[in-house]
Amino acid sequence: MMLEAYAAGKRDEIHTDVLLKARQACYKARDAFYSCLEMQSDKKPTEIGSVGLLYPTECKRSRDEYVMNCRASWVKHFDRQYCKTKRTQRLLDDRETRRGV
Amino acid sequence: MLISRFIFFSANRRLARAPNLLQRFGPSKRIQSCGYVKSAKNNYKKPTSHPVMNVETQSSRSWSAYVIPAALLGFGGLVAFLHYNDERRAIKKGQGNNRGYGAVAAPIIGGPFTLVNTENQIVNEQDFLGNWVLLYFGYTSSPDIGPDQAQMMAEAIDTLESKENLKVLPVFVTIDPQRDTPAQLRAYLKEFDPRIVGLTGPVSAVRQMAQEYRVFFRKVEEEGDDYLVESSHNMYLLDPKMKVVRFFGLEYNAEELSKEILKELKKHQPKAE
């Protein structure tokens, strides 16, 4: 039966980059990168990250740390989430400056 | 034949008079209609003068004469039918809903499954009978939601066991069986709680179970071996008979989860005894 074959045949390879330690390292690098972005928000973003995220050259090093510590799909996921929150934040903040919106 | 014609004529006269009365506000119209009716009456009084026209007008008029009584009868029949239906469906005062509010009026979610656990043993739902089960469908490569949910599950189980002394079995079924081997699951779940049972298996078995539990999952952002799995994040609470009692979405945290599970258990206790 298929199940028996499955139980017997799978090799014992573990992806360690999703286990606890790796996850925490990834989260730390991610937070460092985003705080760098916040700090340098007045600088002009010239570098392109993934999924349309732009960041200034000052944050390049933390970006590299971040990309090294996390999986590519995770990087994309977090970047997308960050852009979304930034956009909603901008919409909420603009309420005072814009009229009639 | 003359008698029948007379009956038709009297019926028609009644009909002709009714529109006459209605046209009271149009004087010119009245005169016109009067004239028309009078001429028709004159026609009828002399049946032999215009036989062809008589027959024609008679047949058209006879059909229109039947419309209103037929409509009235039909309407009466409809009213009677509805009334009868209402009487039949009415629940008498006092009987009410005997099942009470505990019954789950929902589609039956769940079903038999056969998967492999972290010790490479084949497991099916019979092995879980008699336990309360908290079931979660996730995968180890989840960036943030998976670990959060697993952590929450572990915390809730812990709270229930230490404070209320209630045993609920946490089960983590992977929706990414191609990457999550039993060894991978074991290493992953060990970090949260050793009690969490991990289940995986061949893709077809996992897909069948997900279908039974109405869980949606899909690979996204695929780049070769690196992908995320989008899924409907739901945690299912099953009673000892393996029936789905409740499901919890992402908005619950550990305390709320343990509180809700406690509520469900207490609700089902009297029935068990």
From TrEMBL, chain A:
One of its GO terms (cellular component) is mitochondrion. Keywords: Disulfide bond, Mitochondrion. The keyword Endoplasmic reticulum does not apply. It is found in: Mitochondrion. It holds the Pfam family COX6B. InterPro entries: COA6_pln (IPR048282), COX6B-like (IPR048280), CX6/COA6-like_sf (IPR036549). PANTHER family: OS08G0441400 PROTEIN (PTHR47445:SF1). This is Cytochrome c oxidase assembly factor 6 homolog isoform X3. It comes from Durio zibethinus. The gene is LOC111299355.
From TrEMBL, chain B:
Keywords: Membrane, Transmembrane, Transmembrane helix. Pfam families: SCO1-SenC. GO terms for biological process: mitochondrial respiratory chain complex IV assembly. One of its GO terms (cellular component) is mitochondrion. InterPro entries: SCO1/SenC, Thioredoxin-like_sf. The keyword Ubl conjugation does not apply. CDD domains: SCO (cd02968). The chain crosses the membrane at residues 63-84. Belongs to the SCO1/2 family. This is Protein SCO1 homolog 2, mitochondrial. The gene is LOC111292252.
